[in-house]
C-alpha cells in the first residue's frame, strides 16, 4: 500500500487530503512540525509527496530542490498560486507534476495514480554508448562518474533510448510522460528536455539529443 506524505500547513485542507487518500486506499501522513520536514521525509520514506509551495519555515520550492539533491521520490506540487512561473520553476527543480487549488479530488487521485505508475517502472540495467543506465536508481553511470536524473528525465531518456535515431515527437513524449493526454503540459516538457540535455552535456554527451525544429527529438547512437 503506497505511503503518501502530505506537506500542507492548512490544517483543514491537510485533514481533507488525508481522508481522501485513505479512502482511496493509501497510507497518508500529515506534517505537524515544519521545522524538520526533510528529516521526517528521510525517516518515513514515503512513496510520494504532496508538497505545498507556501510553507512556514521553508518554501516548498526550496524543499523540493533540497530533496532532489538526494532522492528521486515522486513529488506533486500542490499550491493556491495559479502562476505559470511557479509551475515552470517547480518542474525545473524536479517536481513530477503540479496541481493548483482548489483541485478536483478525482483529478488529484488520477494524477497520483499516474505518477506512481510511471515512477514504479523496474527495468534491467542497459547501456547507452559508454553509459550504464540504471532506471530503478534514476542514474546514468560511466566508471566512477554518475549523474542523477529525476523520474521525468529518466522516462524521457528511456523513451528516446528505445527509439534511437528516430524522430520522437513532443506529443509522443508527453503521452509517455504523463500517461494521459489530459495532463499534457508543453512548458514542463521543454524544461525537462533542457535539464536532461544539460546533464548529458556535463558528462561529455552534448551531441546526444538533437532537436528537429517542428518535428521533435532524436537520440543519436
Structure description:
By secondary structure, this protein is an alpha/beta fold. It has two domains: 3-119, Response regulator (Rossmann fold), CATH 3.40.50; 126-219, Orthogonal Bundle (Arc Repressor Mutant, subunit A). Helices cover 42% and strands 21% of the residues. It is built from eight helices and eleven strands. Strand 1 (3-7), helix 1 and strand 2 form a beta-alpha-beta unit. Helix 4 (84-93) packs parallel to helix 8. The longest helix is centred in the last third of the chain and has 17 residues, at 186-202. The chain is globular.
Helix-strand layout with pairing:
Blueprint: E1 3-7, H1 11-23, E2 27-30, H2 37-44, E3 48-52, H3 60-68, E4 75-79, H4 84-93, E5 97-100, H5 105-119, E6 126-128, E7 131-134, E8 139-142, E9 145-148, H6 151-162, H7 170-178, H8 186-202, E10 209-212, E11 216-219
Parallel strand pairs: 1-2, 1-3, 3-4, 4-5
Antiparallel strand pairs: 6-7, 7-8, 8-9, 10-11
Return the CATH class of the largest domain: Alpha Beta
Q: What proportion of the residues form beta strands (DSSP E)? A: 15-25%
CATH topology of the largest domain: Rossmann fold
For this entry, what is the oligomeric state of its chains?
A: single chain
User: First CA to last CA: what distance?
Assistant: 40 Å
How many beta-strand segments? Answer: 11
In a few lines, what is going on in this structure?
Helices cover 42% and strands 21% of the residues. It has helices at residues 11-23, 37-44, 60-68, 84-93, 105-119, 151-162, 170-178, 186-202, and strands at residues 3-7, 27-30, 48-52, 75-79, 97-100, 126-128, 131-134, 139-142, 145-148, 209-212, 216-219.
Amino acid at each position: 500500500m503506497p505511503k503518501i506524505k502530505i506537506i500542507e500547513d492548512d490544517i483543514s485542507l491537510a485533514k481533507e487530503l488525508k481522508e481522501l487518500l485513505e479512502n482511496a486506499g493509501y497510507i497518508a501522513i500529515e506534517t505537524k512540525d515544519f521545522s524538520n520536514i526533510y528529516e521526517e521525509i528521510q525517516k518515513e520514506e514515503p512513496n510520494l509527496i504532496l508538497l505545498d509551495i507556501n510553507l512556514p519555515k521553508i518554501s516548498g520550492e526550496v524543499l523540493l530542490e533540497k530533496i532532489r539533491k538526494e532522492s528521486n521520490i515522486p513529488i506533486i506540487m500542490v499550491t493556491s498560486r495559479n502562476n505559470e512561473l511557479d509551475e515552470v520553476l517547480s518542474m525545473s527543480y524536479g517536481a513530477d507534476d503540479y496541481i493548483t487549488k482548489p483541485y478536483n479530488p478525482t483529478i488529484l487521485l488520477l494524477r497520483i495514480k499516474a505518477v506512481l505508475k510511471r515512477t514504479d517502472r523496474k527495468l534491467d540495467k542497459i547501456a547507452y554508448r559508454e553509459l550504464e543506465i540504471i532506471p530503478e536508481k534514476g542514474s546514468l553511470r560511466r566508471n566512477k562518474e554518475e549523474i542523477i536524473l529525476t523520474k521525468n528525465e529518466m522516462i524521457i531518456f528511456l523513451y528516446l533510448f528505445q527509439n534511437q535515431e528516430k524522430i520522437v515527437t513532443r506529443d509522443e513524449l508527453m503521452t509517455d510522460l504523463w500517461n494521459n493526454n489530459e495532463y499534457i503540459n508543453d512548458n514542463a516538457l521543454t524544461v525537462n528536455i533542457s535539464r536532461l540535455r544539460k546533464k548529458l552535456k556535463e558528462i561529455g554527451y552534448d551531441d546526444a539529443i538533437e532537436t528537429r525544429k517542428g518535428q521533435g527529438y532524436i537520440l543519436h547512437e
